[in-house]
Amino acid sequence: xxxxxPSQNPPADENDEKKPSKxxxxxxxxxxxxxxxxxxxxxxxxxxxxxxxxxxxxxxxxDIPLKxxxxxxxxxxxxxxxxxxxxxxxxxxxxxxxxxxxxxxxxKKMAFVxxxxxxxxxxxxxxxxxxxxxxxxxxxxxxxxxxSIVDIEGVVSVPSQSITGATQQVEIQxxxxxxxxxxIPTLPINIEDAARSEIEIExxxxxxxxxxxxxxxxxxxxxxxxxxTHAVQSTFRIQSQVENLFRQFLxxxxxxxxxxxxxxxxxxxxxxxxxxxxxxxTPACLAQSPQLHKQMAICGDFGRVFEVGxxxxxxxxxxxxxxxxxxxxxxxxxxxxxYSEVMDIVDRLFVQMFDxxxxxxxxxxxxxxxxxxxxxLKYLRKTLRLTFEEGVQMLKxxxxxxxxxxxxxxxxxxxxxxxxxEKYGTEFFILHRYPLAVRPFYTMPCHDDPRYSNSFDxxxxxxxxxxxxxxxxxxxxxxxxxxxxxxxxETISTYVDSFRYGTPPHGGFGVGLERVVMLFCALNNIxxxxxxxxxxxxxxx
Length: 541
Hints:
- This protein is an alpha+beta fold.
- The chain has 15 helices and 17 strands.
- Strands 7-11-12-17-16-15-14-13 form an 8-stranded mixed β-sheet, sandwiched between helices.
- Strand 3 (about 110-115) and strand 4 form a beta hairpin.
- Helix 7 packs across helix 9, helix 7 runs antiparallel to helix 10 and helix 7 (about 230-250) crosses helix 15.
């Protein structure tokens, strides 16, 4: 979501995820309860098995007392991450910690425990053997509740056949097993269900099998569990890298990171889509963007600045791509001659970002792709630039009439994205010289036609992710533009006054972090890329 401009309040998006009917939800819930009841019954039956006599191996398993988890000592133990369990560790004793994702009993003398750590899983095997594993230890393993945190020590082995129930193609022959923290016996959602793709569900239906489908609201209501799936883990690792690459590129280009206030007087963008509040008796609001203050930083002679921070929009936008709070990636810079200098930064920044994500984070992209299949983003080495007039003409030739001095709606954006892909072979492009009437008050008009502006939007897969422009840096002209847009100039007087002391021509852009990740990975809802989304209907968890 761009942090440059307030979006109009669009209607609910027709391509939002299709919600299951009440009948389907009830059926899925009954199935889930039957599965849980069966699992609980099996666990109870196993627990009921009596094992006679004291166990000489009792020290090798059990619940770790709380006192031993209160930073009691530093033992020097070394834990191996599950993702690093490979064939090279064959016959080596390792210690791992993770969630007990699945527990399966095989009679009274054998059990399998699948341990998961940050999306990676390994199969651990307990087999009764004298002086190694006791029947009591197997019983303890089978009594564990799913998602409990466990420490397992054992020897890495390589099975003769491939393992289908875990990511790692090795097993651990368990020698010690301790429960660090127990999960409740019945979970609100099962991780296996939450990690299931729509393709798997549809294939099962075709085969006459009913699998549980975890809908979006259920996921978000139980986000802590949903985050444990591999796809969600990878989504936010990709998001982290997008932010890191944004910072690294800009720092390498001489930009300085800044932090601007989120409590401000008036509104940063104009319009009614602001969260208003009382600030010690003074009317205030949450910033719709860092726009005014990042420009003031340019007035302060920083030359080039960027910010990563929260942005707030009080919009009643019930679509797949709008949030009331999101992370803004903002840039502002001096312009020497032309606002194309800002577009040059956008071009090189995102091409480098996309290249790096494909080259270095292919495993995370593949994890997302397994649950939410998508095609690799198509983009050019030199990003395509079209004028707004050229875009309108392409739409007109396709039979779609657009107001030449109006804005593009969601449908028109998608259609233009399709036309651009067909003609130029790219899903990432820049559309510039927008009509002045649809841009914020601080946007500089074009020199040759004041009906247009020195502004641009950037699109991925037919959806806007970036808005940018050259700014008005002349104070009298700025006041005139603000008044024309219905903004009380007194509420932005310190901003306007900043331009009275000599300010260079400048411009910048804003981009929503969640929207970049959503569109790069072709996910169908921005709530998938917001850790704890805030929309008009959700303020928890």
